[in-house]
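User: Second chain of the day. Same drill as before.
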Amino acid sequence: TETETETETETETETEADICAETGKPGSTPDRPANSDHDIVLVFPTEGTPEKWELRKSWLDPIQALYSTLDCYAESRSALAWILANPVKRKTARGMPRFLNAWFSRANDRRRGGPSMPAKTQAELDMIAKLEGRQT
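Assistant: Same format as last time:
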């Protein structure tokens, strides 16, 4: 019927609009394809092949959402400075996501005053007070 044909045509048009004709990738446009140079935040030198790893906004933004109290962009620049200052400790391209996540985790712990410590028991608090000459 005529209504079914119109619905099929609309569905095909929507699907075609979601995929860039030039890149063939969803969510991209001819002037800014997905994973384009516009998505690159920093470039880290790496050990082995490839010789560099591109930190992309599409990778960093979801991590930033997880570390909401941390400026992951600033911490990424600090991590790059560390890599540049310590060339013998460069990571492989494959190891860079793990390296940066560990970097963000340590930075987050520093902001909170270190990794969480278990609370002291009342007996421990009493012993500390006794050693300090205080009464509880």
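The helical segments are 2-18, 57-66, 72-85, 96-111, 122-131.

User: Great, on to the next one.
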